[in-house]
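COURSE: Structural Biology Practicum
ASSIGNMENT: Worksheet 4, Part C
STUDENT ID: 0417
INSTRUCTIONS: Below are two proteins. For each, the amino acid sequence is given first, followed by its structure token string. Answer the questions at the end about the second protein only.

PROTEIN I
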Amino acid sequence: MFEEIKAECRLAEDMPQGRVASSDSQSLRPASFVELRNILPSHIDVVSPLVDQLMRFVSRFRVADDNNVEIELALREALVNAIVHGNQQDPCKRVYVNCRCTTDGEVSITVEDEGHGFENDAVPDPTSPENLLRTHGRGIYLIRTLMDDVDFEQGSSVVHMRKKANAGSDTARKPQ
């Protein structure tokens, strides 16, 4: 039906280390992380299996809490937007996903499509009364609401999402 999802995993030791603020002090300490990269076809059928795979990956670094459901929903929305709106479900186009988890539980996800992008500031507010009955237009709102940081680049064909570390992640979960 369609080609397999291509994935690549990189450890922090394979690349220059980032730095994060230590929770114990104001100093910076090296950030250990694992990164998973995926390339997938523009088929809506690949969204759920990829989200399941990435959430299993994320759960290795974060304590299970309500924030993980928020990450899952934001990721699902970003993938559907990339496939449906960005790539117009064109089977020749791909979606590129990068998921980075630090050992203290921070999650950064980038979703990039091969579309022409859009003006993300021009997307109508789905909470305004005139838009409440619309059947589309809630994905970007949900992503912005559920994640701690959201940035759009390259004409909005790239979305960067970040969820800060949750309490207890560093001590409760370690990479296996």
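PROTEIN II
(use this one for the questions)
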Amino acid sequence: MAREAPHGESRNAASIVSDVARAEHMRALTVLDRALGALIVASNTLGSLLIVAMTFAVVADVTGRYLFNAPINGTAEMVTMMVVVVLYMQIAYTLRTGRMTRSDAFYTRLVARRPAIGNTLGFVFNVAGVCLAVAIMIGAWPKWLAAWRSDYYIGVIDVFTFPEWPLLLIIFLGCGLTGLQFVMDAFGNLLSICGVERHRPSEQH
């Protein structure tokens, strides 16, 4: 006849199983966070390279215009597009590294003194960010499809033209990365509210 395990041993076994499951969930969350971080860093790096290219383009255009009377056609249009592209390629990194515009003096102090209230406020902020990112993506997707199918372009015919769909695609993908980062930050707030500490891998600044 099998001996019934004492109540204390049964509870300890259940606690061990619960701790192992929690550790597995945290490990999976960390893997997802690292993968998202790699994509965000790559997007930010490409945005930085575009800034360098944009700088060289402006310098070359100004030099050609005033020294050789030979400006580079389409420089103004390209710079205008580049500004938008760089914004959406780097906004997720700005959020991930904690540089998104907000009242840090109030929020940081609130989290330090009242962690539950501060993280609840952070959770609301991050959920609102997810909703905003999704709203922009919903608006950008049909415009991207129309630009792709109809071959819309930016510029002046016979002077300079550039297809519009890459710009809209970058807006869509940039908002997607930003929305995912908001989701991860919201999870972080929930874990902090529940008393679970989550360590994020350090980012390259």
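ANSWER KEY EXCERPT:
Q1: The longest helix spans residues 7-67.
Q2: The longest strand covers residues 153-156.
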